Amino acid sequence: MAVLSAERIKITTTKSPLWCTITIIVLGLGVAWMIGRSSSSSIQAYNDEAASGTPDFEKFLPTFNEAGLGVSGFGVMVLMIMAALAITSEYRFGIIRTTFQAIPSRASVLIAKACLIGAFGAALSFVLMLGAVFITKAAAGSEGSTNLALDNADAWRAVYGVPIFAFLCVVLAIAVGALLRQSAGAIALLLLWPLLIESLFGMFGSFGRNVTPFLPFANADHFLSSGSSTNFHWGPWGSLFYFAAFVLVVFGISIAVVNKRDA
């Protein structure tokens, strides 16, 4: 409890987490509103075209994944940046030495950071995901909300899956930050990994197609959407367990490395 209390004080007394939280809220709800307005505009354009002939395009009816893009996409990335900075900033300013002197168990420090920031990120993303869905529905109108009914298990998984994904991403960010100990490097890796590195495998033909089902963020996307064209060897929940196992392995490696090297 003392470790959690110490980490809570660090997080709540610095400005970086506050600004990151504000950014996540603005992105999560702002993107949802834009998605809803885009749907409303496309429906209006479709109806106008239909009145004078046959439209050559389809109406844009957003799904849960599209409504929550600002949360699951941009928001989670900001959460990872915040989590990485929580550990790399201590290395940068030498605070980590004091932390490890006060709390000899280095593993407990990393676990406390991961649990505290992860729980906060999960709670925030859950609330924002619900808010994003309702904002998108309000902006899109009744016709544009056709795919946004919370009336089945897949629909609810798209909502509660984002907090699970956010928590695991925070744990991964803490681990990467502890391994690299440098803010720019950790943030660059965490952002380029899902955005660029994994997508590059699609350029390698059959090799890329065979490797993609084993990429961590590809599995996370499969859990959230289940609409990928990739031929996965397991279902959405299998993809979640795969991503969680990957995160735990990286986190375990970070604990082992932190315990062995000098602060």
TrEMBL record:
Keywords: Membrane, Transmembrane, Transmembrane helix. This is ABC transporter permease. The chain crosses the membrane at residues 18-36, 67-88, 109-135, 155-180, 187-207, 240-258. The keyword Membrane applies. It comes from Rhodococcus qingshengii. The lineage of its organism: Bacteria, Bacillati, Actinomycetota, Actinomycetes, Mycobacteriales. The keyword Aminoacyl-tRNA synthetase does not apply.
